[in-house]
Write a structure and sequence with these properties.
Structural class: alpha+beta
Order of helices and strands: HEEHHEE
Strand order of the largest sheet: 1-2-4-3
Number of strands: 4
């Protein structure tokens, strides 16, 4: 997002969070209007210790842990859609009939 801001005089950061109750699951969508995620990074984004930050500025465990909690503990799904240079959107689906472990 900050890289995008460097190239524009003014930028309006936008984060949209929506929720919806579907038939068998709850859907949570989190979308921003930042730099997006390249296809190469999307393939690695949920791997432990993968980070795009400079050395010493983060471990890259946040999305990996989130993925494990959503998929293994709750039996849900976590996916990402993105258009490089325009947006990133995370979709979380949590079943409503499966109790958490």
């Amino acid at each position: 997002m900050w890289e995008k801001a460097k190239n524009q005089r003014f930028i309006r950061a936008k984060l949209v969070i929506t929720t919806a109750k579907k038939i068998s699951f709850v859907e949570i969508r989190i979308r921003d209007n930042g730099m997006g995620i390249t296809p190469e990074r999307i393939n690695k984004i949920f791997q432990p210790f993968f980070t795009t930050k400079a050395s010493g500025h983060g471990t890259g465990l946040g999305l990996s842990l989130s993925y494990d909690i959503i998929t293994k503990v709750h039996g849900g799904k976590l996916t990402v859609n993105s258009e490089d240079g325009n947006y990133a959107e995370f979709l979380i689906g949590i079943p409503v009939d499966k109790p958490a472990a």
